[in-house]
Design brief:
Layout: E1 13-16, H1 22-35, E2 39-43, H2 49-59, E3 65-69, H3 74-82, E4 87-90, H4 95-103, E5 107-112, H5 115-123, E6 128-131, H6 134-146, E7 154-158, H7 166-170, E8 176-179, H8 190-208
Parallel strand pairs: 1-2, 1-8, 2-3, 3-4, 4-5, 5-6, 6-7, 7-8
Helix pairs in contact: 1-2, 1-8, 3-4
């Protein structure tokens, strides 16, 4: 079993750009990078997602993690690798998908909700776990499951999380988040995303001090 480590990030925040179109990618992704985001996920149920991912990969600076969400098959992983994606986020635990992404050196973050799913993902070699929906589990639910997991796993709270509740998760030692509609909704331009991203970065740094 190979486990790709989670790269060091000043702010381990993953921007989830569900619904992004290729012709919007440069504007929106550029706004996120400018404000300090270094991980960007474009879900595969977006319009022409692999085109958008390829555009984002080409414009992103070194050290910026670009990839796909809603990855369901090994074929998806192969296409993601072809366009240079380095982040694989899935809504479920599929060992073959995790293994295929790990074999290509990708950071893997499968979605989990229960202890059984979390341990299965760990056994499959996942880099980290996306606890989803975090708003249902809450910090206490994630904390209870985390107690049985390998300590090297990156733990991210995703779903119903925004800059308003970073402190709740900080209290249990969670530093990584996937942020969707609080940052981006389909149709937003780069200027709108920039404003939201700046507010998010400011809130994160207030709680965490801006260091990792």
């Amino acid at each position: 079993m190979s486990r790709t480590p989670f790269p060091p990030m000043r702010r381990p925040l993953i921007a989830i750009l569900r619904g992004l179109k290729p012709n919007e990618t440069e504007d929106v992704v550029g706004a996120l990078i400018e404000t300090g985001f270094t991980a960007i996920e474009i879900p595969l149920n977006s319009p022409e997602p692999f085109r958008s991912i390829e555009i984002a990969v080409k414009m992103a600076p070194e050290g910026c993690l670009i990839g796909a969400g809603t990855v369901l098959t090994v074929a998806d992983v192969e296409r993601l690798a072809d366009v240079g994606g380095r982040l694989m986020v899935s809504p479920n635990v599929e060992p073959d998908v995790i293994a295929a992404a790990a074999a290509r050196g990708m950071v893997t973050m499968p979605g989990v909700f229960t202890p059984t799913e979390a341990l299965a993902a760990a056994r499959a070699g996942a880099t980290g776990l996306k606890f989803f929906p975090a708003s249902v589990l809450g910090p206490s639910g994630i904390q209870a499951i985390r107690a049985i997991l390998p300590p090297e796993l990156e733990i991210a709270a995703v779903g119903g999380v925004s800059d308003r509740n970073f402190a709740d998760y900080a209290a249990i030692g969670i530093r990584s988040f996937g942020l969707g509609s609080s940052l981006y909704k389909p149709g937003m331009d780069g200027a709108e995303v920039h404003v939201r991203a700046e507010a998010t970065i400011e809130a994160y740094d207030t709680v965490y001090g801006g260091t990792r």
